[in-house]
Design brief:
Blueprint (H helix, E strand, L loop, with lengths): L3 H6 L16 E5 L6 E7 L6 H4 L2 H8 L3 E6 L6 H7 L7 H4 L2 H15 L11 H16 L11 H11 L3 E6 L1 H10 L3 H17 L5 H10 L3 H11 L6 H22 L2 E6 L9 H7 L3 E4 L3
Parallel strand pairs: 2-5, 3-4, 3-5
Antiparallel strand pairs: 1-2, 1-6
Helix pairs in contact: 4-9, 6-10, 7-10, 11-12
């Protein structure tokens, strides 16, 4: 599976960097003015919250927090809008690809989706790609970590509210849906879907999805970053997908970091890179150090 795996998961990369980062998903962050301490944690959006309880140092940092920051808060009032953004009225996936490619998509996707692909003919191809990739992750990730009822990002938001912590989102559901479904045209998305299925059919014994999952479980930011560079985002709007988002988040993070005892949970590949949060926060004067496994 190619670079679109990372795109659809939101594990996006910006500009290539030669720097190396310690193998840890959890980083201590000290505010330059208040000297108060918070934590930055890299999530994997498709894995379940059991990963947290399996890693005591992460659980300890989260439990000690008073403020929780996540990429997005689930807003039930916005879900209908988000759902509509995943549709393409007046367009047809079947009409976008040639007959041989469509037959291949049906052959490979129908068993995975549990329905004939024609039923999703006016759903944006990126939605179908995401469904496909979720099933791919489910096929090899440890059973305890494939918890689609409560992925780790959702756990932090929901449990944080339950515990009375202050919870904030860096983006709205509509903003994230726009990045996922509107950063490329539906025609480009259809080409990506076909390419992904063809490459998966020709793949070796392990897919990129399996590799990146293994690297994540090993908390190896360097291998995740190297793999992301090898795959290459290669899109004209890569700044919109990653660099600009990280830069937009920095001013939003200043208030919770100044208060201290914040637990910031964002996609793991938002951490490394020249334009990643680790380097951007250091440039603002914050002290960061990895909390090793």
């Amino acid at each position: 599976m190619k670079k679109y795996f990372l795109l659809a998961l939101g594990l996006l990369v910006a500009h290539v960097s030669i720097a190396q980062w310690s193998s840890s998903l959890l980083w201590e962050v000290k505010d330059p003015e208040t000297k108060k301490t918070s934590y930055l944690f890299g999530t994997y959006h498709l894995l379940g919250s059991a990963f947290i309880s399996d890693n005591p140092r992460i659980e300890k940092a989260y439990n000690a927090s008073e403020h929780v920051v996540v990429e997005m808060l689930v807003d039930s009032s916005a879900m209908m809008t988000v759902a509509m953004m995943g549709l393409m009225p007046g367009k047809s996936l079947k009409a976008m690809v040639d007959s041989a490619d469509y037959a291949l998509l049906q052959e490979k996707l129908n068993p995975i989706l549990g329905m004939d692909l024609i039923m999703l003919d006016q759903v944006k191809p990126m939605v179908i790609s995401t469904m496909y990739m979720l099933k791919d992750v489910e096929s090899f990730a440890p059973d305890s970590l494939v918890d689609t009822e409560e992925p780790m990002d959702l756990f932090f938001a929901q449990d944080g509210k339950k515990q009375g912590k202050e919870v904030m989102g860096l983006e709205t559901a509509k903003e994230q849906a726009s990045l996922l479904f509107e950063s490329t045209t539906v025609e480009e998305q259809a080409k990506m879907l076909v390419e992904m299925v063809k490459q998966e059919e020709e793949a070796d014994s392990t897919s990129e999805a399996e590799d990146v999952t293994a690297y994540y479980l090993a908390e190896d930011l360097n291998k995740m970053w190297a793999m992301a560079k090898d795959l290459g985002l290669g899109l004209d709007n890569s700044d919109v997908l990653l660099k600009n988002r990280n830069e937009n988040w920095i001013p939003k993070l200043k208030a919770p970091l100044a208060k201290g005892k914040a637990f910031i949970a964002v996609g793991a590949l938002h951490l490394p890179g020249a334009d990643g949060l680790i380097e951007l926060l250091k440039a603002q004067g914050y002290e960061l150090k990895p909390i090793m496994p």
